[in-house]
Input
Amino acid sequence: MAERVLVTGAAGFVGRALPAPLAALGFEVHGVGRGDTPPGSPARWHRANLLDEGDARALLRDLRPAVLVHCAWYVAHGKFWTAPENAQWVEASEALAAAFAEAGGRRFLGIGSCAEYADAAPGDGAPWPETRPIAPATPYGQAKAELHARLARRGLPFAWARLFHLFGEGEHPDRLVPFVARALAAGREAACASGRPVRDFASTRFIGQALAALAASGVEGAVNVASGEGRRIADVVTLLGEAAARPGLVALGRLPDRPGEVPFMVADTGRLRREVGFAAPAEVEADLRRLVAAVARDP
Output
């Protein structure tokens, strides 16, 4: 019989990328959210308010999943970095993990962030390993780090996926990649900052496959889930312009750089590749081109 997995936030930006690869690995996939199931999702859908402990406990008691992938969080664009909802989700997520264990769950996969890591550390300029100091600079990063620490103290078998810089289906239109792609599709100038910082970009398609592999593995603790490849933001934006056949509309340096921008944020993905066994190519350029083509069809 197939093992049952529950994905929280399964209609969200990250969560919607999980059901298909989990199903491909042989899981019986269930998703939970407050709204309707995303079109084409293979997940069996449930509605629940996970901030209501009673609602969450009832769902887990009835469903009894063996594996839980917890993607749900407060992620309103431009607000989540400092939102008070981060503290609410720490409490709700710890309660969810406890209820999951009580219902007989065997493996919890939490979604963390590169925002948990210290902005500056010895050896900067090299990929960031999971052993990098934890010193988050934002309430969002602090909340993720606090939840990770609480789960570790509970002793529940769990893995913690630290994500880096994502793009893909369902992304807020004001984020970098969709903003540039939509401007180009409309024939407008895409005004950007200098683009000098180096980041670790990956599509949610790739991240969904990596998270599914991590969920199916026995690896515990923090694991960087990312491409492991550094690209200047300017190079990503330039590629978008070339893919749209409108490179002249990309206006790098038109906007000021953000004060205190971290110059280099790239993941060391050694654990993901060696221990989880996930070594699929990230295909970042191909996924960016596919996104540009999709936006051109439906701007």
Q: What stands out?
A: The first helix runs from residue 19 to 24. The two ends are 43 Å apart (CA to CA). The first strand starts at residue 4 and ends at 8.
